[in-house]
TrEMBL record:
Membrane topology label: Multi-pass membrane protein
Keywords: Membrane, Transmembrane, Transmembrane helix
PANTHER family: HTTM DOMAIN-CONTAINING PROTEIN, SPORULATION-DELAYING PROTEIN SDPB
InterPro entries: HTTM-like (IPR011020), HTTM_dom (IPR053934), Sporulation_signal_mat (IPR052964)
Pfam families: HTTM
Taxonomic superkingdom: Bacteria
Subcellular locations according to the entry: Endomembrane system
Domain HTTM-like: 31-308
Name the UniProt record assigns to this protein: HTTM domain-containing protein
Positions of transmembrane segments: 32-55, 90-109, 179-201, 238-263, 270-292
Keyword rRNA-binding: no
GO cellular component: endomembrane system
Length: 362
């Protein structure tokens, strides 16, 4: 009896290990999801840099010298001190700022991502360390995800790198065995998913401990904060609806706490992702945190199956209007038309000859 139980347990463990090995080495997973994540993260970085461009000197540059005592709190060390320095002048800081934006554009387009991604991560962390008070959760998510993406192949789809690799005669700069790239890619994907799980579960469990979320009024109070209300009228329309506030509060906690379990089945996964996307869109609109929401949506894109991305791409191609055909006749159509005209003339000549013969007949 005990021996049979031991054999069953060891067999189950062996099958689990075999399945895990096949998943890790049998091709790169979530290639479309990671590509979408790359694009959205790049857009979030560019958006944050663009909206702060006017105030860049006061947030991170020479105008933020009063924050010098705070720089010792996080104790950043090399290589995060190599790009932006405390003693940069206005011109030097602006040039580095523009260089960082150029890196974000290259990352978004998927150009030389193996080199651009780690450089972008170091540059972003180097900039953010100059003002710890200006950082938010979105900045932390961007830095963490960029670290994971350094080991993933985010340019396999929808990128300039993918077009370059598809050219005949392409040779990688540093050739590696295929299984090495596959292993690092899938492990990086696991790291991204684990980080997202930790964010949602920690947030949900912290909400559960508060009486406001237990009573179903957790959404009411954040919407009343004036500093996070870009459109006060819209916020008032939301928090004055008791039914919406109650349902939204409970659904938010439920989805965040059980998010990993909801992804196990397709039906619940679709509902969970729709709820998460709706939550982040609501945060972006009602609390003026668009870049945080976009960074989280970018991380959530890895949970959408590649088959779904392919289906959406096929639908988009079918919906794309077909280009109008050239009005100049092709050679084949020209020949067909010429043959029809010749046949028409021959028929006319034959009819004319018949008429002439009939008219001269006795």
């Amino acid at each position: 009896m005990i021996g049979e139980a031991i054999r069953m347990v060891t067999g189950a463990v062996g099958r689990t290990i075999d399945s895990g090995e096949r998943w890790l080495f049998d091709g790169k997973k979530a290639t479309y999801g990671l590509a979408a994540m790359r694009i959205l993260l790049g857009v979030a970085i560019l958006g944050s840099l663009a909206v702060n461009f006017t105030y860049r000197h006061y947030v991170w540059g020479p105008g933020a010298r009063w924050l010098t005592p705070w720089l010792t709190v996080d104790e950043y060390d090399a290589p995060f001190t190599w790009v932006f320095a405390q003693d940069d002048g206005t011109v030097v800081f602006t040039l580095k700022y523009l260089l960082l934006a150029a890196l974000a554009v290259a990352f978004t387009l998927g150009w030389r991502t193996r080199i651009v991604t780690p450089v972008l991560m170091i540059a972003i962390a180097s900039l953010m360390r100059l003002n710890p008070l200006a950082d938010d959760a979105g900045d932390n998510i961007v830095r963490i995800m960029l670290l994971f993406l350094c080991f993933a192949d985010t340019s396999m789809r929808w990128s300039l790198d993918a077009r370059r690799r598809a050219r005949p005669g392409y040779r990688p700069l540093l050739p590696l065995p295929p299984w090495v790239g596959t292993l690092f890619h899938n492990v990086a994907l696991i790291a991204v998913a684990t980080q997202v799980f930790m964010i949602y579960m920690t947030s949900g469990l912290s909400k559960v401990q508060g009486s406001m979320w237990q009573e179903g009024v957790g959404l009411y109070y954040p919407l009343r904060i004036g500093q996070y209300a870009p459109w006060p009228g819209l916020n008032e329309l939301v928090y004055t609806n008791g039914v919406f506030v109650t349902i939204g509060s409970y659904v938010t906690v439920f989805v965040q706490v059980l998010f990993p379990l909801l992804l196990l089945r397709r039906g619940t996964r679709v509902l969970a992702l729709l709820a998460i996307f709706a939550m982040h869109v609501g945060i972006a609109v009602t609390m003026a945190l668009p870049w945080f929401s976009l960074a989280m949506i970018a991380a959530d894109m890895v949970f959408v199956r590649d088959d779904t991305y392919r289906a959406v791409a096929r639908w988009a191609r079918r919906r794309r209007p077909t280009p109008a055909h050239d009005h100049q006749p092709s050679v084949l159509s020209w020949r067909r038309g010429r043959l029809m005209i010749m046949g028409f003339h021959r028929g006319n000549r034959a009819r004319s000859a018949a008429v002439c013969r009939s008219s001269h007949a006795p």
